[in-house]
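Per your request, structure below.
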């Protein structure tokens, strides 16, 4: 049942690839409420195990839809100074939902719990009826007037015409290339974003944050302490929620790259500490009474690994994914990443118990720790800083040197034209920034 979330996530992401480009970002957000509502209704009324498999698949389908389209949507509608905080806000609410379920779950009956949360997809749908469509999407479809109206709703200031001109030039440049999967995987200019995005996705999922959360109750039962399991779970959820607030503050102040590197290192260290406890328990066979005093240290290490990953990479990797791909391949890139992540998530969920059976919990935690350390090294050498940069400026950084494969004459002409265009765009941006500062 736990593993069925990943196939649903994959299918939902694939569906979003087509729905978001055909119907728009807003319509896709609204449509994501349908599978989540259906899954919750099944959860409340199920009386056989196979219905719970369908429930988990539908929840994964809806989550795949909303996570894919929200990453695109927020990157397209938000200013460069707010983009990080808005994107982290979705993780903050995800953690808030976890906290509510962990806190009230032990005290409500199964039926009452599921019927009580059935109202949430309808609240979500109603609230999202009022959000504007992405101006990027409208410009991609050639609907300039609609894009202007969306910008007026989003910006509500006198610089809308300048902003619109910037967006038109950005979209025109990015849409010169194809939007197909073939374009994404064969274009030289997309190789660096693909390497960065795929590497971060692997390290994010393979550090085992979701697996640890799914199996947390089982893990806590292996730790020799006197604390009730429900207390463990509530503390875990509360801490994750609180540090999510810190992440929303730090992401646009400290920057993406430092948070990635240090959070991977910190998570790896504390996962190794937890693994050492289970090594002493399972392999060295240290007396249980001697280990009893170290049980709380292990629980604290698991909490701290969760704190650091929530403040760092688990909150900001989605932001980076939304920033590093140009508009023409953004939908197919987000879909491909989520499909890739779905397969990785399925592998981790199904493989967790198999690895535990072979190597014990010490092996599980040490593998997660090693991957986190690798993530820090990978981020140090490959990930650029994107804080405070527009989507166009990020593309200029990533595409530096990507045109080396062009023939000399065409390459010179393209670069010359691109320089003229970039100079014009930068001048417009400077004028807009100055006007914004004066208004502030």
């Amino acid at each position: 049942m736990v593993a069925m979330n990943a196939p649903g996530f994959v299918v939902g992401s694939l569906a979003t690839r087509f729905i978001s480009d055909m119907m728009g970002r807003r319509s896709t957000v609204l449509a994501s409420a349908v599978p989540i509502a259906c899954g919750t209704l099944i959860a409340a009324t199920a009386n056989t195990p196979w219905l719970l498999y369908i429930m988990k698949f539908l929840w994964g389908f809806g989550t795949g839809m909303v996570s894919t389209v929200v990453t695109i949507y927020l990157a397209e509608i938000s200013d460069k100074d707010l983009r990080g905080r808005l994107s982290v806000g979705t993780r903050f609410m995800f953690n808030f939902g976890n906290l509510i379920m962990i806190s009230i779950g032990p005290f409500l009956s199964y039926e009452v719990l599921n019927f009580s949360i059935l109202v949430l997809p309808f609240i979500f749908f109603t609230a999202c009826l009022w959000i504007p469509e992405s101006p990027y999407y409208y410009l991609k479809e050639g609907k300039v007037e609609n894009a202007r109206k969306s910008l007026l709703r989003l910006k509500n200031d006198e610089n809308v015409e300048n902003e619109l001109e910037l967006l038109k030039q950005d979209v025109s440049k990015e849409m010169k290339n194809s939007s197909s999967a073939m374009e994404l995987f064969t274009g030289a200019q997309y190789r660096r974003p693909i390497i960065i995005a795929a590497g971060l996705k692997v390290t994010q999922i393979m550090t085992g944050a979701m697996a640890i959360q799914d199996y947390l109750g089982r893990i806590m039962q292996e730790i020799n302490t006197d604390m009730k399991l429900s207390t463990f779970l509530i503390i875990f959820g509360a801490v994750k929620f609180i540090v999510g607030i810190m992440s929303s503050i730090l992401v646009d102040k400290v920057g993406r790259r430092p948070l990635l590197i240090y959070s991977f290192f910190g998570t790896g260290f504390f996962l190794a500490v937890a693994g050492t406890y289970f090594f002493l328990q399972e392999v060295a066979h240290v007396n249980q009474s001697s280990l009893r005093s170290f049980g709380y240290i292990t629980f604290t290490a698991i909490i701290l690994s969760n704190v650091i990953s929530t403040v760092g990479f688990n909150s900001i990797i989605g932001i980076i994914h939304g920033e590093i791909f140009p508009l023409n391949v953004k939908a197919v890139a987000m879909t491909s990443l989520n499909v890739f992540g779905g397969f990785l998530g399925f592998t981790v969920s199904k493989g967790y118990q198999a690895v535990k059976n072979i190597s014990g919990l010490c092996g599980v935690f040490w593998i997660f720790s090693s991957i986190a350390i690798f993530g820090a090294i990978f981020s140090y050498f490959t990930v650029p800083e994107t804080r405070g940069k527009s989507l166009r400026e990020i593309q200029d950084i990533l595409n530096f040197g990507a045109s080396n494969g062009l023939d000399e004459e065409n390459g010179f002409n393209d670069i010359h034209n691109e320089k003229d265009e970039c100079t014009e765009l930068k001048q417009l941006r400077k004028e807009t920034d100055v006007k914004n500062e004066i208004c502030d």
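Confidence is low (pLDDT under 50) at residues 401-428, 434-440.

Regards,
D.
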